[in-house]
Amino acid sequence: MFNLIRRDIILQKKQLILFIPIVLFFIYMDKHPALIFLVASIFIPLNAYAYDEKSETNILLNSLPYTRKEIIASRYLGAIFYMGLACGLTGLALFFFDRPFTLTDMAIGGGLFLTFAAFTFPLFYILKPGYISTVVIISFLLLAAAGPPVVIFFAERLTAISNFIMNLSDLVLYTGTALVIIVIYGISWGMSTVIYQRKVF
Amino acid sequence: MENVVELKNVTKKFKGFSVENINLDVKQGFVTGFIGANGAGKSTTIKMMMNLLRPDAGEVKLFGLDYRTHEKEIKERIGFVYDGNVFFEGLNLKDIKRIVGPAYKRWDNQVFDHYIDQFELPLNKAIKTFSKGMQMKASLALALSHHAELIIMDEPTAGLDPIFRRELLALLQELMVDENRTIFFSTHITTDLDRIADYITFIQSGKIIFNRSVHDVAENYALVKGGTDLLDRDTEKFFIQVHRAPTGFEALTDNIKDVQNTFGDAVVIEKASLEDIMYYMKGGVHHV
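^ inputs. structure came back:
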């Protein structure tokens, strides 16, 4: 299974050269550190899916001595692994360019990534190959554009909920959020496994 | 264990196409050729053997094991070659080896290097720049480097030039020196099989027509030629399919004895090639 995770690096050697300039670009543009962590985390796992949506890849992986469960597990564990790696590298880059950031920024970036991954990964096994990357990229942009205003809109109108959230202590808020994300990620993992096991190549 | 692959009453239905009640045994230590027209169900059957497709009903067993409980053990022992390129086309062979190799416990770099030398394959060129023949060689090198006991190939000779086809067949023969090894491959080029196959499995419209040794096939089927005046309702029963022409008839029989007894010297009995058998079984168009 470790081999399946390692595969992404071999596949993406060339794209990885782009990774550093993109991160540097965001740093140069003076974007919020949390956003930079998010973008950096998405890079490798999403690229990996662009390869995996091809049916040939699935025929290959499923002909090798791997089970379908392992193939999905490698995706979900790999995403966490590469997220960690990307956050580490981004943190270093920010440090070298003397841009202050907090662990909270990193946690927010990572948390957003995991949530995003939880919602998009199963799509790769539901939608027809060829459309998936487009759908995911468009929905990512839409969410990024429409998300904050929508949240603010609701936060202003549903004061009861926002008051409740505001009144939570930081510790409760963070652990609560972390737990919710873990649960969503776990459900997504389970769903993908079920879908993938029924797939036909 | 005599049968490496066992399919029992396997059925798989698709829209507009199905393979039904397939019973198939692939014997250990032999080359089995899997023939049938395009769309007869060869790839579907192979995919079920590889667990890429799951049958709607029936049982698929490899090495006596079930995919549900022993998927990894089974695949560890199979080398696969598919018609098209399934490897990441942007990568070179060295990187593909890095991905495929570690998947197998018994991967052998020395064997791999040996085939790379023998096939004169470049390690640093993207696989998409390879010719069809080179891609096939690359797939073979990858399939043969983990000491697989069963080699499953889907149309390995399709689209290859005659010279490489022969090389490939010679290589397969070399592989069979290992007595435990089994090769199962599909093809629609029947002359490939005359050279190397021990057993022939013939599939047509999703049904296995026969699964017999090459010797058996040669003994049991024959082409019969004679004047059309010999044909009537009774004599036609000896034939699987009769093609009439103004100059006489040509027919396939699996009942050589009766034909000989009935017609004697009035007809010419010839050996039927696999292609003849496929053609007549299909009930194809009449000869001109």
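Residues 221-281 of chain B form a domain with the Alpha-Beta Plaits fold (CATH 3.30.70). The mean pLDDT of chain B is 87.
thumbs up if we can close this ticket
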